[in-house]
Specification:
By secondary structure, the protein is mainly β. About 5% of the residues lie in helices and about 50% in strands. The chain is built from 3 helices and 19 strands. The strands form 3 sheets. Strands 1-2-3-4-5-6-9-12-13-14-15-16-17-18-19 form a 15-stranded antiparallel sheet, with no helix packed on it. A two-stranded antiparallel ribbon has the order 7-8. Strand 17 and strand 18 form a beta hairpin.
Length: about 375
Amino acid sequence: MGLRTNPGFSRRWVLKGYAAYGTLDRQFKYSLGADYIVTLKPWTIVGVKRSYDLERLGFTPENLGGNSFFSAYARFGSYRRPYYQEDNQVYLRRELGKGFTQTITFRNQTFDPLYTFAYRTKPGQGADSPLHRNFRTTELMLETRLAPDEVILQNDNERLNLGATRKPVYTFRYVIGMRNVLDGAFNYHRFSLTLKHSFRMGTLGRTYYNATVGYIPSTLPYPLLHTPLGNESWFYVDNAYNLMNFFEFVCDRYAALRIEHNFEGLFFNRIPAIRRLKWRFLTTAKVLVGGVSQDNLSAIPATDEQGNPVAGFQPLGRAPYVEVGYGIDNILKVMRVDAIHRLTYRDNPGVTAFAVKASFWLSL
């Protein structure tokens, strides 16, 4: 059961939360959050959040990108590498200028795995290193977002982002982990830079692309590294690799490129029988390159303290992960169907080399 207040309750305060009970693990889960809008112009908001829930590796808010439907889907079925997480956050977001937004977040989290897991606290000592099973992290995140051409609709305490029309959107994020601050177990750094843009190619249609680079120059247990977002569902997810399994790869350095070109009415408008349907033909491609340092590989032991085999992970090799696709958009004005081919790492266990997936959305 969840709730969220609206402007009728308050134009300054936004309260939200949920409570849940797991019928199989017999555990209560919850989330409580409060936002206070300091000023509307410039947009300034402070907030706090506390949650405790069952999570799965790779499904972080940064990966999901606000996809609520996919996040809800991920709550069903069997969990691969599940863990309980207590998450406490305090954040401040302020628009420093038109399209220039700075966010500061202080976060304290726990990792309590429900599968066989261990990590070496001193990887340089090899087999002589002590082993731990769970940990707590304390982080300070600084995010700078530059979107000078972005269209924003604002009504009281609600703010809707309609995207940029001509210029790229840049997002730079720096995360510093702090050991011994609120029982944080590690010192580390994490960097990422994302460029998002679209442009028109005349009568050929419109191209959308999203490029990301990231680097984690620290020795950490693999749950703190980057896990690319896979998609084992039947529907297409724009910010996921749609033929990659959940938790198939892990990286501490990576570069990703997602491209979509919509030909709009270039082809189907020339076919009299289906011109009235206003279908739109599109093509997609997603590429990921990356790797894991030897120090991070050596941080995972073969067995835990009880002698049970520890589940490891697969790093990307020299070859990039590549998937390409083609599809039809604007079916009944709300539906899209994509046919996707996986071109690399086709011999990995349990992968699908080809799939047809659907999605539903409204576009302006």
